[in-house]
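Checklist before submission:
- one chain only
- standard amino acids only
- sequence pasted in full

Submission:
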Amino acid sequence: MRRRDFLKTSIGASIGAGTVFSIGGNTKLLATAPDTAKYDLVTITGGKPDAMFDIGIKEMGGMREFVKKGQKVLIKPNIGFDRIPEMAATTNPLLVKRIVKRCFEAGAKEVYVFDHTAQECNNWIDCYKNSGIWNAAKSQGAKIVPPHLESYYQQVDITSGLRLKSVKVHELLFETDVFINVPILEDHPLTKMTCCLKNLMGIVWDRKYWHFNDLNQCIADYATFEKKPVLNVIDCYNIMVSHGPQGVSKEDVVSRKSQILTIDPVAGDIAASKIMGVPTEMISYIPIAHSMGVGNMNLDSMNIRNIRM
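Returned file contents:
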């Protein structure tokens, strides 16, 4: 059985019409917006990306829990490749658009959207525009940030890193008050999965060192850096289950109509791995990051809400 076919019949395939994706014991069928509450992790299934975000962020305590009046916000989607949204190589533009809107409604002074695209094989402007994220972000008043000049990046020390000791990080990370990580869940040939922790690679300038010096350890090392996302919003609406991270055709994509919101990137990656149907032991950076104190991979110890729209 091919991996793509396996995924269609695995745990990930439970996320579809009439079913509930459940992590932990708290599952709720949603007819109306819930009362405000805060959880470590919220999963939503069955809606459009923007509608699911509205429900999820309310469960997390509301956007004002994360964005205060007058703050500057950096939103980091995955815009790594020159692909249309239907290819599921980049974060869904409807989700990015809604997050930008809610940030401004919460009182944000400025909102920036940025990703260091895979410039070796893709032009950054093409990536931003063909992903749909350029128009989605600008339509809500966000500022699009070009990633292509090394002078935009500052050298920082990764004091807790075992392999990654120093790296150049985009200056926006230091010039903004709030960092929101918005990865898309997808296949990757080297790490088995791209999600919260690996999406942070798009903040740095040179990723070549990572690939030749234990990529999984470097991913975990960077996640220990002091400027961390306050919120991770995982796009699982359509996911690329093979030929990642760029994809070859729409045959690589399956519909899951799901989303995960969490303050913990390790927990988020664990939950996402269940959607992908990839055993945790195959995703080496997750237990490494857990052991380094980045987050918690033991979902049973967390306060979790599962919702089906």
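Reviewer check: Residues 18 and 46 are 9 Å apart (CA to CA).
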